[in-house]
Amino acid sequence: MHISEGVLSPQVLACGAALTAAGLALGLRSLKNERLMTVGLMASAFFVASLVHVPLGPGSVHLILNGLLGMLLGWAAFPAIFTALILQAVLFQFGGITVLGVNTFTMALPAVLCGLALRPLLRREGRVRLLAAFACGFLSVAGAALLTALALAWTDEGFVQSARILLVAHLPVMALEGLISAFALSFLARVRPEVLTLFSNRS
Amino acid sequence: MPNASFSSPSPVASPYRSGRFLPAACVLALCLMLAGPAQAHRVNIFAFVDGTVLQTECSFSSGTKVQSAPVDVLDAQSGNLLQQGTTDTQGRVRFAITPAMKAAPKGLILRVRAGEGHQGEWTVEADELTAVTVRQEQARQAQTQQEQAQKDRAPQVAARAQTAPAQQAAGPADSAEQIVLTRAELQALVREAVQTAVEDALARSLADSQAALATTLDTALDTALDQKLAPVRRMLSEQTQKSPGLQEIIGGLGWILGLVGLAAWLRRRP
């Protein structure tokens, strides 16, 4: 899901940077001081997640965890993902600095939207909440694949081909991330039930 | 009384006490780290000059080879496409070095396009290619010298063969100035002539064989060096294609924690 340096045109890069700047502003404004550590921990999880790979046929794909961040952080997922992506670009040479805006936006926006849309269901008890968490993890990766394909629409690969390849390649990741999101939420509900107040108190 | 309410263990009182969240997050991060090393979508490309061929290797950061992906050879200065190839199942492509590639003033850029926005680049410096030019040039010069020498020798031998009987024939015809030679004098003359001819021929063949030896040595050195350098090249290639290690991971996590601390300090309430 990390688009490399030098693939996209300057227009697409500028567009991504502007959208990410807006997302960052929203995220930083909504970020409460007492939640800073949570954001940091989730950014760490995202930073490490891309090193976990799922073998798949001849190649393999890596975890993204954007759905988990969107679910737990809301708009604050933008600064968390942005920070993690900078460090991945500098330390691992995944993606790149100029593509940072596009990569942040493609991974953060679907996650934030899924988290916000599913919030009413995440408030419920029991199985509905688990299913909502699964859907959040699943759909966030699918959305990220679609947005990445959209960013690639102006390269010679085109939207339809990129979207098909990315969606098919990430199907196992979507399922896995759904499971991870559901597991993480049920774990948090047991260990720190106050986290769930998120879904009722805050916007 | 305020003390009592402060110490009451209400679970909702401070929702983001990190005491219980931190171990859970650490366990999660550890699980993630131990789950397996490194595939993320970085594409590595590595190229080196092998004799008169540009050998290229492409792989993902996990070590998976990049198969049947297009590789472009570009002029680093103008960005013109000079050659194009496709990786095999081992992620390798070989490009024959063309004059256009050698003429590139700032060297070459090799770009592999692995699809879905994955791309990697490698720069081949111009002097790596000029070494090839010099080597090819030397080989060509040596060959032409040899050919020239052979060509030169043929007419000279023929000329000598012609002049010798002519001189002999001229001897008796020039009756006005007959020179009488003793047997010893004749022997000395003949010996001298034979000696110079032999020395001449020896010098020539020595020069020829020196040139031939130089080329043989050059090629032998090249092959020997290529063989000796193969492990070094492999190490270099592995170095450039190394997946992120523990140092980078821990460094990144430290950075995130540091940034959180910085943000907390900046947002502190006075």
Shape of chain A: globular
The structure class of chain A reads mainly alpha
User: Helix count of chain B?
Assistant: 6
Query: What fraction strand of chain A?
Result: under 5%
Low-confidence stretches of chain B: 1-19, 29-40
What is the helix tally of chain A? 8
Strand order of the largest sheet of chain A: 1-2
* Biggest sheet features of chain B: 4 strands, antiparallel
Map the helices and strands:
The complex is a heterodimer of chains A (203) and B (270).
Chain A: H1 10-30, H2 36-49, E1 53-56, E2 59-62, H3 66-73, H4 77-92, H5 100-123, H6 127-151, H7 159-191, H8 198-201
Antiparallel strand pairs in A: 1-2
Chain B: H1 2-7, H2 18-34, E1 43-50, E2 53-60, E3 70-75, E4 81-86, E5 92-96, H3 99-103, E6 108-115, E7 118-124, H4 126-173, H5 183-240, H6 246-266
Antiparallel strand pairs in B: 1-2, 2-5, 3-4, 3-6, 6-7
Helix pairs in contact in B: 4-5
Describe the structure concisely for a colleague:
The complex is a heterodimer of chains A (about 200) and B (about 270). Chain A has about 200 residues and is mainly α.
Question: What do these coordinates show?
Answer:
- The complex is a heterodimer of chains A (203) and B (270).
- Chain A has helices spanning 10-30, 36-49, 66-73, 77-92, 100-123, 127-151, 159-191, 198-201, and strands at residues 53-56, 59-62.
- With 203 residues, chain A is mainly α.
- A two-stranded antiparallel sheet of chain A has the order 1-2.
- In chain A, strand 1 (53-56) and strand 2 (59-62) form a beta hairpin.
- The radius of gyration of chain A is 16 Å and the shape is globular.
- The model of chain A has no long low-confidence stretch (mean pLDDT 87).
- With 270 residues, chain B is α+β, with helices and mostly antiparallel strands.
- Among the domains of chain B are: 43-124, Immunoglobulin-like, CATH 2.60.40; 127-162 and 194-226.
- Chain B is 57% helix and 18% strand.
- Chain B is built from six helices and seven strands.
- In chain B, a hairpin with a 2-residue loop joins strand 1 (43-50) and strand 2.
- Chain B is elongated and about 130 Å long.
- The two termini of chain B are 26 Å apart.
- The chains are: A mainly alpha (203), B alpha+beta (270).
- At the A-B interface, helix 2, strand 2, helix 4 and helix 7 of A face helix 2, strand 7 and helix 6 of B.
